[in-house]
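Bug #2210: token dump truncated for Integral membrane protein?
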Amino acid sequence: MASSYSVKRVIIPAMLVAVTVVIARVFIIPIPMTHGNINLCDAGIIIAAFLYGKRDGLIVGGLTGFLLDLISGYAQYMFFSLIVHGFEGLIFGWLGYNKSRKLQIIALVAGVIIMVAGYFITDSILYKVPTGLIGIPTNLLQGFVGAIIGMPIALRLKKSLKI
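Reproduced locally. Full output below:
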């Protein structure tokens, strides 16, 4: 029984990483001014965190951000994305997993703010502060679109899968 449980604990986040990378890679909009892009990785991170908690939110967020940057040609962002999206997923799961709708919305806002702040710092380090400032609106857009898509899917899956 314990062996089956541990295999499940490895397989589920791995599958969620794979699905999130594919979805984020298919729906991607490059933003040349910031050397980055808008994608749907935040939706997948929210789904993982709301279904399985902060551990899986952290794993899916970090690995998805890292792998997406690697395969998208944004290698300079890989390690920053590992940290930023990992922390975002941790916050989504910590504040939103098995919580009231109000706390889940607070979790979404907090996670998006962390992601936006993280990429402001990242762009400011990699390029300059003006680049970080230019990225704020596009990162907000990405985060809130991810929340608008991810939360209803997570809630529907949680109900139908009885997680």
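Output looks complete on our side. Residues 7-18+40-156 form a domain with the Arp2/3 complex 21 kDa subunit ARPC3 fold (CATH 1.10.1760.20). Marking as cannot-reproduce; reopen if the truncation happens again.
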